[in-house]
Design goal:
The chain is an alpha/beta fold. It has a domain at about 5-165 and about 200-230 and about 285-300: Rossmann fold (3-Layer(aba) Sandwich), CATH 3.40.50.720. Helix content is about 40%, strand content about 20%. The chain has 12 helices and 14 strands. Strands 3-2-1-4-5-7-11 form a 7-stranded parallel sheet, with helices on both faces. Strands 8-10-12 form a 3-stranded mixed sheet. The longest helix has 19 residues, at about 85-100.
Length: about 325
């Protein structure tokens, strides 16, 4: 068991909370930076020490991280908005805090930093030639972390597919495929039939990060791993799992309204940024977890039917 302390930036989000829960299970003391006041934090997990502050404030992050061995950087601008002005400054604040405290930075990564030349099978060393501005920002973010690692700041990056799990966060499962709190009339799927897609179950991500940190003395200073998660080879495995979990095998699958989102994007930032991610659904993209499985022995993996059923119950979908 661990006796160290981890600071989570973004602990109220899906990934941040999943990592926090796993670290607690592995014996870590967990603190979290939040902009909520003391009254609001009383309704949150009381096993976590909630520290007031903002990830956009270098002094707040450094103060919160003063006794941390690990800083989990799981914070992102909400709704795909303001990436250009927020993402890089936030990581700079985390790097500054880690440099002062000696902490290792943990970053939950994405596949945005890859382009068509790297598809369909992504390894840790695949070329990074992104096709969107968000992708270019992710490349810049990881490049900045790699540079910091050469200056003595240890880094761990775990790149994942699309998140899903028992949290009403910003992810395709909870915001497109199903509607939380409602009876499902149809599964709305963003991709065409026959195109493979990678999904990442949040509790498995958290457990993977915790297991990697259990072996942190064996990690490279700049360590990168790909999380295999659940591979849907034809874009129909997840809809079938949803129908099965709800006991409604005849539940139909309908197409995501990309044209409407594109039209709305002419006037609003969030749908505009969502529309730019369409290419990720038009190409089969799979993350190779060979390096991760070799390092851990095997990747933490919840069966798809169990993961989907647990997610639907938490989201109150029926």
């Amino acid at each position: 068991m661990n006796t160290g302390k981890a600071l989570i930036l973004g602990a109220t989000g899906g990934v941040g909370n999943a990592v926090a829960q796993a670290l607690l299970q592995h014996g870590w003391q967990v603190a979290a930076l939040t902009r909520r006041d003391a009254g609001e934090t009383r309704t949150l997990d009381d096993r976590i020490e909630w520290r007031s502050g903002d990830a956009m404030s270098a002094s707040d992050v450094t103060a919160a991280a003063q006794d941390a061995e690990i800083i989990v950087h799981a914070v992102n601008p909400a709704g795909y908005r303001n990436w250009g002005s927020l993402v890089v400054p936030m990581i700079e604040n985390t790097i500054a805090a880690a440099r002062k405290t000696g902490a290792r930075i943990v970053l939950p990564g994405t596949i945005y930093n890859y382009g068509f030349d790297a598809f369909p099978n992504l390894s840790e060393d695949s070329p990074q030639n992104p096709v969107t501005e968000k992708g270019r920002i992710r490349v810049a973010l990881e490049s900045r972390l790699e540079a910091a690692s050469r200056e003595g700041v240890p880094v761990l990056i775990l790149r994942c597919g699309d998140f899903f799990g028992p949290a009403r966060g910003s992810n395709w499962f909870a915001q497109a495929l199903v509607t939380p709190g409602r009876r499902l009339k149809a599964v709305t799927y963003p991709g065409p039939e026959g195109i493979g897609h990678s999904w990442a179950y949040l509790p498995d991500i958290g457990e993977t990060v915790a297991q990697l940190l259990d072996r942190r003395d064996q990690l490279e200073t700049f360590a990168r791993f790909h999380f295999g998660g659940h591979w849907d080879p034809d874009g129909r495995a997840l809809p079938r799992a949803i129908a099965g979990a709800l006991g409604r095998p005849d539940l139909r699958t309908k197409h995501f309204p990309w044209s409407l989102v594109g039209a709305a994007g002419l006037f609003m930032e969030t749908p505009r940024e969502i529309y730019k991610m369409r290419y990720l659904w038009r190409h089969s993209i799979r993350l190779s977890n060979e390096k991760l499985a070799m390092f851990l022995g095997k990747e933490p993996h919840t069966p798809l039917n169990v993961a989907v059923a647990t997610t639907l119950k938490a989201l109150e979908v029926r």
